[in-house]
C-alpha cells in the first residue's frame, strides 16, 4: 500500500480526501501546517507521494516542495491550488512539483493522477541503473537513448517509452491496457488503441530486420505484446 502525506488545512476537504484515498487503497497521513509537515518529512523515506496545498496558515506548499527537493529529487509531488493562474502553476512546477490540480476537483481525477505519478516513480526506482541491455538492444536511461547493435535508434518520445516498457518486461506478455496506461502523456491525454498500433508498427520498422516477420516485438493476439530477448 502506497503511503501519501497530505498537507492541507481545510478540515472539510481533508475528511473527503482521506476517505476517498483510503477507499482507493492508499495509506494517508495528514499535516495541517508547514511546521507540522516538516516534522513528518524528517522521515521522508516513509512516503511514496506528497500532496501539498499551496496556501497554508504558516507558509506555502511551494516552500515545503523546495525543501523536499533538496533531499529527494524522485518522490512525486502534486499541488492542490485554488488558483489556475499561470503564475501559480509555473511557481509550483519551478519549485519541483510534478503535477497540480485546481480546486474544486473530482476525486477520481486526483486518484488517476496519483496512480500515474506512482507508476512513473516506480519505474524510476527500478531503473537506478543507468542502462538496460536485452539481446542486441541497449538503452541509456540517463540520456533517453537506445541503440541496436551499437547503432543509435531514431525514436520519438512515445516510441522510447514503449521500448523501455517492453524491454523492462522482456519475455513477458504486456497487455494493451498496461501499455496504454504507461503511455499516458504529461498533458493528461490518453493514447488510444489505434495510436498504439501505429507506435508498435513504427517501432518494429526501427528494431526488426524484417518488420513483417518480427523476432523482437511479438504480437500476442487478444492480449498485447511481448519483447523476446534475442539477438538478430
From TrEMBL:
Residues 3-118 form the Response regulatory domain. InterPro entries: CheY-like_superfamily, OmpR/PhoB-type_DNA-bd, Sig_transdc_resp-reg_receiver, WalR-like, WH-like_DNA-bd_sf. GO terms for cellular component: cytosol; protein-DNA complex. Residues 129-229 form the OmpR/PhoB-type domain. May play the central regulatory role in sporulation. It may be an element of the effector pathway responsible for the activation of sporulation genes in response to nutritional stress. Spo0A may act in concert with spo0H (a sigma factor) to control the expression of some genes that are critical to the sporulation process. The modification 4-aspartylphosphate is found at residue 53. The keyword Transcription applies. Keywords: DNA-binding, Phosphoprotein, Transcription, Transcription regulation. One of its GO terms (biological process) is regulation of DNA-templated transcription. Residues 129-229 bind DNA. GO terms for molecular function: phosphorelay response regulator activity; transcription cis-regulatory region binding. It comes from the Bacteria. The keyword DNA-binding applies. The lineage of its organism: Bacteria, Bacillati, Bacillota, Clostridia, Lachnospirales. Coiled coil: none annotated. This is Stage 0 sporulation protein A homolog. CDD domains: trans_reg_C (cd00383).
